Amino acid sequence: MEKQIFLLGLIRQSDMHGYQILDLINSHFNIIINITKPTAYRLLNNMAEDGWISLREEKEGKRPPRHVYSITPKGEKEFQRMLRESLAEYKPIERPNPISIAFLQIFPPEEILPHMLKRKSSVESIIEGLIGTKDHQKNYQLVFEHQHFHLKAELKWINYTIEKMNSPDWGKDVK
Amino acid sequence: MEKQIFLLGLIRQSDMHGYQILDLINSHFNIIINITKPTAYRLLNNMAEDGWISLREEKEGKRPPRHVYSITPKGEKEFQRMLRESLAEYKPIERPNPISIAFLQIFPPEEILPHMLKRKSSVESIIEGLIGTKDHQKNYQLVFEHQHFHLKAELKWINYTIEKMNSPDWGKDVK
DNA sequence: GGAGACATGTAAAGGGTTACATGATTTG
DNA sequence: CAAATCATGTAACCCTTTACATGTCTCC
Questions:
Q1: CB-closest option in B12, B90, B97 to A122
Q2: Bridge partners for B67 per DSSP
Q3: What pLDDT band is residue B118 in, cutting at 50, 70 and 90?
Q4: Residue A63, CB, less than 7 Å from strand D?
Q5: In this predicted structure, what is the pLDDT of residue A153?
């Protein structure tokens, strides 16, 4: 449902065709959402079939014609319905952690430390990228901010854990 | 892969049968991972077929016999392989946010505020539950801690956003 | 003339969920 | 004796990803 909401949300702001949507998502929104081609095309086709979006073809030369989508009144209604539903769900928070963390302590600290450091710099560079795009995406500022809060928390956790790795208790009681 | 890692990780610590595993996950680990029955049984069967875990039947009365799994040397190897792979991936952080946040501002603050408050108390009660179980799960302390960091970040974000909703800029520039 | 962007898709395979199915045992 | 728990599973359906497929246009 998340993906449908996001696609509708984009189309709703301005008419778009599939390639354009995919391009936009991959270039600007990959930090917050991830949609691959087959999924996008299927969802768009489904929504077009259901009358949530309407489609017009724009031909240029001999290329495959663009399928330009616009949101319909029905689509707008469904968009708001899904949005409300999603807001009302109060989903705890999906695991932001690869579960592998649970078993970190079975490896010796020497092996984990480089991974943690790399993870750290990876998070840092994501944060940098995020700060760069944040201002240009006013409409989406809230999600980027939200992500930013969580990235900062991730950094904090990494630092905290690295420090813990130096304590003598590390790995105790763990098979 | 996450689910396989977690199942193996549990079996690795002590032999278990399917029902027991599902019960354990639903009662103690639902904050950090989510596995349903068909998925668990399928994964267990697959791993048994592949020789990652071995199976012995324990019969008691006329009930369906328990399928008790133990990890095999091969399973241990695969477990460590997957674990290393997962650690090396440096996955950014999966979206911890329902994408609906992106479109929060299309609704008037009066409608959203109650949702945000409910979300807040939901997060708070998850944190409470988490603090309660944390100490008893020494082996899994790291994941719970990780989750805790992110839950605190979520709370911070909620408070920050609620405050922002009162500013005159709220909803500006948003279609 | 070749690389890369433009523009659409599909096929196969795997993962996941919901709901259905079965029956024994324990507990109130 | 009814309800919950123990214990297994399957069927149908949906969603997602990886890889394949096709051809045009633009820019260097």
A1: B90
A2: B57
A3: confident
A4: yes
A5: 93
Predicted confidence band at A158 (pLDDT cuts at 50, 70, 90)? Answer: very high
- Pair A104, A116: CB distance under 8 Å: no
For nucleotide D7, the protein residue with its alpha carbon nearest to C1' is B64
Domain formed by A2-88, architecture:
Orthogonal Bundle (1.10)
Q: Show which of residues 34-63 on chain B sit within 8 Å of chain A, judged by CB atoms.
A: 34
CA of B81 to C1' of D22 (A): 39
A33 touching chain B per CB within 8 A: yes
Mean pLDDT of all residues belonging to chain A:
87
With a 7 Å cutoff on the CB, does A35 touch strand C? no
What's the token pair of residue A153?
């928390």
Q: Are strands A53-58 and A66-71 parallel, antiparallel or unpaired?
A: antiparallel
User: Is pLDDT of B130 > 60?
Assistant: yes
For residue B31, give how far its alpha carbon lies from the nearest alpha carbon of chain A (Å): 8
Q: pLDDT tens across B33-89, in order?
A: 889 999 999 999 999 989 999 999 888 777 788 999 999 999 999 999 988 888 777
Domain spans of chain A, in order of start: 2-88, 99-165
Beta-carbon separation of A93 and B90 below 8 A: no
- The one-letter code for the residue type at B89 is E
In terms of C-beta distances under 8 Å and separation of at least 24 residues, what long-range contacts does B81-87 make, across chains too? B82/A100, B82/B1, B82/B4, B82/B5, B82/B8, B83/A100, B83/A103, B83/A106, B83/A107, B83/B5, B84/A107, B85/B1, B86/A98, B86/A99, B86/A100, B86/B1, B86/B2, B86/B5, B87/A98, B87/A100, B87/A104, B87/A112, B87/A115
A136: confidence class by pLDDT, cuts 50, 70, 90: low
For position A123, what pLDDT does the model report?
87
